[in-house]
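Notes taken during the Thursday session

The instructor put the following on the board and asked us to keep it in front of us for the whole hour. The protein is Bifunctional apoptosis regulator. We were told not to look anything up and to reason only from what is written here. First, the residues (439 in total):
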Amino acid sequence: MELDSADDSVEPLMESLLSESPESQSSANNISEHEFSCHCCYDILVNPTTLTCGHNFCRHCLALWWESSQKNECPECREKWAGFPKINILLRDATEKLFGDVLQRRRAEIQANPKISRSLFAFQRCFGSQIQHFTLNKQGFTVTSLIMPTCFQVVVLVYHWSSGPVEQHDVLITKAVSHWTPEEVVSWLENLGPWAQLYRGPFQQENVNGRLLLMLGEEELLKSPYNIENPAHRRVILTELERVKALGVKPPQNLWEYKAANAGKSLFLLYALKRSPRLTIFYLYLFDYSETFLPFLHTCCPAVTDVDQSVDPSWQQWAEFLVKYCLLPYQLIAEFAWEWLAVHYWTSRFIIVNAVLLSVLEGCALWRLWARARIRTLPRMMWNHLWKMLTQGFVFALLWPFVPQFVCNCLFYWALYFSPIINIDLVVQQLIHPETAPL
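Then, after some discussion, the predicted structure tokens were revealed:
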């Protein structure tokens, strides 16, 4: 009897609880709507993604934040997250049960917005490629596994070029003209071109040394025993004599001689041309006009008629140069290297390939700015880049005299021969996943 009375008392209680459940559920929904909101869009979480700091955001909101800021940090507390943010399955299922209708409406709005779809795709691609790269790193098949062999090859190259025949040309570019021997004068004459072989005999016969070379003029070259009657040959010899008198040494005539005579400048130009070709060429115009800039311009933009490289270029040459300078600066470098194929066979090819790769990377960067509607930020980015390059150049000029020559040679040959290998990987990533590259 007691059990029956107990059952009778429980049934009304359960009925009362069931009758109150809709009100309790509605109150729970009212409370949970704020608790399940995203702190970016202040709406119900769609595909809630939990960061390492514990904050939750809609996945598309996190993708939009990442694309605009280019930072892996929480939009609320600014703490950086690690790894690839995952969707919180428990939280997603809870919002599905509580706010199914609202989520269905929001998903339709998100799918209809192309900007959100593009950001989500870029977000997924970027971090998905990072995970794949990390997996390949663990297996040891990435480009980084080549660092040690590459470093070894750089050391071998430095040793080869430091002790090989390249350095044999360094004597005349560092030795004063007044101290040249007759053999060195003949060597200087032969470097002017194959035609200079015609006048080798008279210079040897007269035993012309550095002091006598500086005394030669147009009248002496016309008279016996030199008898240089060809006006073009005579003009070239006189022009080179003027350059030798002005410099006091032999001017560099190829890449290795230029590197030996201007070790710090060659290393600076090699790295600066990659980062900022227009600023570097402008630097040559301001501070190295006659010795480097004029030969560079005459080689890349030759005149219709034969013009000596020491003469100022014509307005047609300036117009062609300025167009290429503004639009395709790396093409100027490739054209310059192309003209030196006979002297630097493999080195010129490395430079040409690297110039093409850098042109592709620059074009991809401009395309990303246009596609992301951020082309208006280009002036600000150019100013920041200019300030950065000027600062780095100033620091380099201060620290250069204290850096060991062997270290500089390693950096020089690394940038010259192995930068194209790195740039190939960058170009492949840009072409396969253009939307994932940062600005």
